[in-house]
From TrEMBL:
One of its GO terms (molecular function) is transmembrane transporter activity. The keyword NADP does not apply. It comes from Paenibacillus monticola. It is found in: Cell membrane. It comes from the Bacteria. It is a multi-pass membrane protein. Residues 6-382 form the Major facilitator superfamily (MFS) profile domain. One of its GO terms (cellular component) is plasma membrane. The chain crosses the membrane at residues 72-90, 96-119, 131-155, 161-181, 219-239, 251-270, 277-296, 302-324, 336-354, 360-378. Keywords: Cell membrane, Membrane, Transmembrane, Transmembrane helix, Transport. This is MFS transporter.
Amino acid sequence: MFPVKTALWLYLFLFLAFFDLHAQYPILTPFALSLGAGPAFIGWMMGMYSLTHLPGNLLAGVLVDRNGSRRYIVFSLITAGLILLLQAHAQLPWHLLILRAASGFALAFLSPACMTLLASLSSDAAVQGKYMSGHGIVHTLASVVSPAAGAFIVAEAGFSVTFRSLGYLLIFTGVMAYFSVPKHSKVAAASITPMPLSPKENSISNNPITTSVPVSRRYYLLPFFVSCSQGVLFFELPLTQTGSRSMVSTGILLSLLSLGALLTLSMFFLNRLTPAGRIAAALLGMALCFFVLASFHSVPTAAILFLLGAAKGVLFPAMASLFISLGGPSRMGRTFSLQSIAMSLGAFAGPVAAGQLRTVVSPYFIAFLLLMTALLLLPPRNAGKQSALQPDWNGRPA
């Protein structure tokens, strides 16, 4: 029961942390506008948060494998909470830019540490996949209610009270993590021991196509382009909402996005399908949703965002299984660190590009092109050739 208990504690901390983070999405752009920032500056402000993820991700990959996850989970949560308390007193756009950059570095340790600890709770691929699916469901549940909640709190109490409340919530979560997350897990240590492979699995693991560094780097383009498209959405959606209740409507739309993801995450039978089909179908679905947002303004935005979220719910568990298979048990921290780096780069490039090109082309069309590029970069499923995305790339799909 020890791994299950640890996983439940982690899910609680992740829920509170994700609730806190997603609650800021619909209010950061209006807050920056209230400080006098323009669209281009807002793009840089949102991108800077992701850019400062990079040094943190690089450090986290090595440090988490060496020292365990607990201290870095606690550090990320408490430091990010203190930064939010300072953010409540920001007076100039540059204040917000600096604080967002500092928050990006602090939170860079959280995702690699949590996902490494979750993956190390078992050495069985199927169980690891279940833990990752639980991570996705918790993330989605938090993001369903938090955008609307953050927008309503701002509408009733103002920006300062909202940021202080979110900051205290993160600090409280960090203190809980200090007393609840174990320093070392015997199960995690055991998972580092190589497991005996069947002849079929052994031939796959020794395949240079699935173990060489170039293939791994190619796969890291997938989270980069996906994160780019998400950054474009989080930048553009608040700017397209008008009226006195624009923040509330943005929060509700983002909650609908998460509801769509929750729907497909709850369809556990999808995990029986090969990751190749799930990844390709999800990328195509997300790309078409962005194309509709850019070209057909008469289609209700709420319906498109719900479908976009449903595609995300299919994509992210498949990506998690992919990266578990790419890294060995003793390198999971580095693997998830590289994944986080790719997503940080994408989350930086997306809003910056959207802010600079918004007057030339619809940012949603940029996201469409990015996702179609990711789809085209997937390895071909040639007959007779073993590919890491073919049905046998992971003999035990999560």
